[in-house]
Amino acid sequence: MSQVLSPTAEDCRERLEFMTSITKLYFRHASTLIAHYDDWKGKDEFFFIELRLDMAYVSTGFIARIANPPYFLGTIVRNSLLHPDLFSNECPDGHQAFAYTYSGSPLSGRVSQAMACPICGWNAWTERRGWHDRSRTLKAIQAEDLERYKALKESNPDFKPVDLKDLLRSLAVPEEDLVLPRIDRKIEKSESDGFVFQRDPFGGVMIEDTNTGRITCYQWHGLNE
Ligand SMILES: [Zn+2]
To answer: What are the sequence ranges of the domains in the chain?
Structure first.
């Protein structure tokens, strides 16, 4: 079965694909971006680059976010550097590595943090407890930066952040390392306890209750795959 998307939905898709590519580059170069934060934090067109991070905990009946969109590059890095007690830990070589994205469950309190070491480039996911503490801290930092962003847009309505590639170029990242990875369009399907979960490659999810037939969608963009 195929469905025709409206131009608006297609525009939305393109933006999602673009932001997903940006975010993949962010994941790849997180250690460099953290290491050189002082070099780019002062430029709003770098600081307010928007990432598409998947920070929502989606369950049947509710969605909880450890942090709210928009996710500005500068905010995430600033938050980790400002609160190392919550957002850093040692890499295997004993350096201080910092979190660059997070997820987890408010129910169990478990938090998964992707960590990158600015010294050796180590990059891995770690598990911690303390979802609520981290969520509170993150959201406070986000609120500060969102105020700054709003003031910026007010004084300069044409303000736009640059492409993450331009920031990485300014940090002397070689051009071959900026090639955008191909977007995987695969939809992942899983089942548990009478629910069917489908996840699209952009972080959207569709949940179907097989008993009632009720379908709940969250940022779902997989309709014409
Ligand atoms: Zn290290």
So the answer is: 1-22+188-225, 30-172
Q: Which two tokens stand for residue 55?
A: 């920070």
Report how far ligand 1's centroid is from the alpha carbon of 91 (Å): 5
How far, in Å, from the CA of 157 to the mean position of ligand 1? 41
One pLDDT digit (tens) per residue for the chain, 225 residues: 334 444 455 666 666 677 777 888 999 999 999 999 999 999 999 999 998 887 888 777 778 889 988 999 999 999 999 999 999 999 999 999 999 998 888 989 999 899 999 999 999 989 999 999 999 999 999 999 999 999 999 999 999 999 999 999 999 999 999 987 566 667 888 998 899 988 876 667 888 889 998 888 776 665 443
Give the CA dihedral 93, 98, 103, 109, nearest 10 degrees. Answer: 80
Q: The pTM is what?
A: 0.77
